[in-house]
């Protein structure tokens, strides 16, 4: 959900990343990549080895909990399904408009 636009609207790019992403034919606007990421194919990153630093540094708390044995794979999957079912464009608009007003 980090790459499909559910959690984030942009990925900030630094250094040579804007030029590198453009060379991979990915959209870059004001040194940021809009999300849904154009490099996302299903659940796979097609530029994984060349992904931006912000993407490489991202730690999904659910994945961390899964690796630590704090949740099972079935529980993690159920959480993802539940979140995806509850996220609507209207909910995202209200959330981000509310953040902008703060």
Into which percent range does the helicity of residues fall? 40-55%
Task: Give, in order, the helices and strands.
Answer: EHEEEHHHH
Return Rg in Å: 15 Å
* Strands, count: 4
Q: Tell me the strand order in the biggest sheet.
A: 1-2
Percent of residues in β-strands = 5-15%
Q: What best-fitting shape do the alpha-carbon axes yield?
A: globular
Task: Outline the structure in words.
With 102 residues, the protein is mainly α. It has 2 domains: 1-58, no CATH class; 59-102, no CATH class. The chain contains 5 helices and 4 strands; from the N terminus they run βαβββαααα. The longest helix is centred in the last third of the chain and has 14 residues, at 73-86. The two termini are 25 Å apart. The mean pLDDT is 85.
